[in-house]
Each structure stands twice: as C-alpha cells, then as structure tokens.
TrEMBL record:
It is a multi-pass membrane protein. Pfam families: BPD_transp_2 (PF02653). InterPro entries: ABC_transp_permease (IPR001851). It is found in: Cell membrane. This is ABC transporter permease. GO terms for cellular component: plasma membrane.
Length: 306
C-alpha cells in the first residue's frame, strides 16, 4: 500500500508541472492567441530558476526568476504576433526552437552545479494520517497552489468582468474593439500572464521536480501542456484533471519497474506521449465538439483598422 501512496504523491507532483503550464496556455487561448513556444519558454525558465537558486539559495527567488524569463519571452512573442501580425504558429515554433538552443547554451556552466538541501513540507497532523498523509499532505506548496489557481481562474473567467472581457476578445475581437476595448493590449496581457505561468512550471521542474539542470530536461512537457488545453476543451477544472491523468501515466513507468513488471523501458518512457496522441486522436473524431468549445478567434490575427 505504501507504494501506491508514493505513486499518488508522485502523480500530484508531476501533474503540477503540466497543470501550471497548461493553465497559462489556457489564458492565452481564451484571448485568441496560440503560443506553441511553451517548451522553449519552460526550458529558459528552468535554467533561470535553477541559476537563481544556485546563487541565492532561495527557491522562491528561483520561481520569480523563472516567471520573469517566461514573461519576457512571451512579451517578445506577443509583440511579434499581435502588433507585427506575424504568423502565430510559425512564431511559436521559432520561440520553442530558440528556447531549446538558448537554454542549452546558457546552462553549460550549471550542468554540474548542485542546489542546497531540499526542504521537506508536510501539512501538520494531516501528514501523519496513514497512507493518505504521505500521498496527499507532504507536497510542495505549489502543488496546492496549482489547485487554488484552478479555482481562481474559474472565478476570473466566468464571474469577473475582466475575465468576461478576455473571453469576449477571444470570441470576437472585432466586436470587443467596437465596444471600445483595447483588444491588442488585452491579448498581450494574456500572453504575458500565460508566459509567466509557463515560466513558473519550468522553474518548478529544475528547482523542485528534478532539482538539477540538464539540457532539454523539460522533455516534451510543454507540448503535452499545449495538448492538455484541447483535451480539457479550454476549461480550467478539466485541465487539472488531465494534468493528473498524464502525470499518473508518466509516473506509472517507475511504479511498474519498481514492482518488477517486465516491460521494455523504452515503451514505458514513451507512455505519456502515446497517451497524448491517443487522446488527441479520439477528440479529433468529433470536430463539432471542439468547434463549439474552442474560442472562435483562436489563432486568427486581429487588425483594428479592418
């Protein structure tokens, strides 16, 4: 039973990375902007966060550095696609490729660096409950922060005036512009906020999830987070559920190896990506369902003068 408690704990930990990044991308897409550069932003944020902790010894400064790196890259992306009207898909891919190369270059000197001793967290009293405590109540605060972020985002998008305006921009930017809303600035703010969350996810990987720096350590999580927004039909609660689902698939490979299941390690490593492809293939069989839930202006440029 203890192994199952550890599997649940690891699932929550792995799912947190995907949830935070996917929620950031969800904000982008609710405003009508597709950012395929999540992988690159997360890698740059991972090295920024790791370097900050190496030099300061403070994990929270590492998270701030990661968010800053993600926000800066997202700002550049936003200016290019929103003001200069470059193609969103091509620009996002370029950002992803840039992030992979730039993070590898900057991180050369940090490959052998080690972080200070990692702190251990536990919710008082609840962490002592047999089985449930180790599974649920010995997590990093950001694990619970991701859950709180989902609730906050649900309220923001569906209850607050600002969130409703953001969704209106994603559905019909021309109508929002006609009503006097600054569509471009709203989209840029959404892109920067999304980039900051992707940056937080990247820093969480290098500071908490696997506290070290290795080139390419995000290992496709940015792409899985991007797929999660479609899997969740652009709804925050479903993003969290999907993140834990994919996190569980990721951790399952280690659990199976630990209990002695004889499955090729290469197949187990590929499980999260196979699951992503299968889920997207199943969802794509019903294009009407996607079209009904997808923001109407997703990926489409907006020209205020038109």
């Amino acid at each position: 039973m203890e192994s199952y408690a550890l599997l649940i704990a690891a699932t929550l930990n792995a799912g947190t990375v995907l949830a935070i990044a996917a929620l950031g991308l969800l904000i982008n897409e609710k405003a009508g902007v597709v950012n395929l550069g999540a992988e690159g932003m997360m890698l740059c944020a991972a090295i920024a966060g790791f370097a900050a902790v190496v030099h300061t010894g403070n994990d929270w400064l590492g998270f701030v550095a990661g968010m800053g790196a993600g926000a800066v890259l997202a700002t550049i992306f936003g200016v290019l696609v929103i003001w200069l009207n470059t193609n969103q898909y091509a620009t996002g891919l370029a950002l992803s490729l840039f992030g992979v190369g730039f993070s590898a270059f900057v991180g050369i000197g940090y490959v052998k660096e080690k972080l200070p001793d990692r702190p251990h967290f536990a919710v008082p009293y609840l962490a002592d409950i047999p089985l449930v405590g180790p599974a649920l109540f010995k997590q990093h605060p950001l694990v619970y922060g991701a859950m709180a972020l989902v609730l906050a985002l649900i309220w923001f998008l569906y209850k607050s005036r600002t969130g409703l305006v953001l969704r209106a921009v994603g559905e019909s930017p021309a109508s929002a512009h006609a009503l006097g809303y600054p569509v471009r600035r709203i989209r840029l703010a959404a892109v920067v906020a999304g980039g900051a969350l992707c940056g937080l996810a990247g820093a969480y990987i290098s500071v908490i999830y696997t506290p070290l720096w290795v080139e390419g350590m995000v290992a496709g999580k940015g792409w899985i987070a991007l797929a999660l927004t479609t899997f969740a039909t652009w709804r925050p609660a479903r993003v969290l559920l999907g993140a834990y689902l994919f996190g569980g698939v990721t951790m399952l490979q280690f659990h199976l190896q630990g209990v002695g299941v004889q499955v090729p390690s290469q197949l187990l490593t590929a499980l999260p990506y196979i699951a992503t492809i299968v889920v997207l293939a199943l969802i794509s069989r019903n294009p009407t369902w996607i079209r009904v839930n997808m923001p109407a202006s997703l990926g489409k440029p907006f020209y205020p003068g038109s």
